[in-house]
Design goal:
Residues 7-96, 146-245 form the Pseudouridine synthase I TruA alpha/beta domain. By secondary structure, the chain is of the alpha+beta class. The protein has helices at 27-39, 72-82, 137-147, 195-207, 215-222, and strands at 2-10, 46-47, 56-66, 87-95, 107-115, 129-130, 149-152, 167-178, 181-188, 237-243. It contains five helices and ten strands; from the N terminus they run βαββαβββαβββααβ. The longest helix is centred in the first third of the chain and has 13 residues, at 27-39.
Amino acid sequence: MHNIKLIIEYDGTDYHGWQLQTELPTVQGELEKALKSILQEKVKLISASRTDAGVHARGQVANFKTRTTIPTNGLMSGLNSALPCSIAIKSCVRVKSSFQARRSAKQKLYRYTILNSPCPSPLLRNYAYFFPRHLDLIKMREGAIILTGRHNFSSFCASAETREKRICHLLSLQVKRRGALIYIDIEADYFLHNMARIVSGTLLDIGRGKISPQELQKILLARDRRQAGPTLPPHGLCLIKVKYPSLRSGKA
């Protein structure tokens, strides 16, 4: 059996998330259908992140086990021919059998994009959250510094979150402006459900003057979802990259 690692880019607009769902279009469903057609065997993909409906990815990672002897470059070419234009395979390589896309991941980087402009953009409507009013980026960056580090992020996850582990190490949280676009880049070792979108919504509340950066300490200590900002819509979120130990060193 060979273990194959894929790096996948997709536009999540028309999908009900990554995870397979009966009678609903999902990214995993499209990929497994294409793989079955090419490999003539049923395989199960394991992804680094189970992105929600409407969330995009530039660097999703998934792996699967297969008996195929098709070279990886041929497999990549075949998949890109079989997949809809909203999904593309950017890399296809064999890795050691112990590699597992979710369990082996060390860090993930997400980006939330805000269009901060007086006018909406029809071309960006599926990829950026439109917010026309002034945002104070200096205060948003002050808030980002407070949230960076190892904290209990119970206030920043969906109330339906079932996982007991709530301690996450937020390694980097940066707020950048490029013209009318504001990027919130969030890198952590572990993400709770909706955490990236709630962190982004809370920083947005700081930028618009609804709360102060200093209130974040109280929000963290409260461990109460109601204390943090809104869950921003999914279309502004993109999984940029998943980081692993070096595969060449045999540590995967």
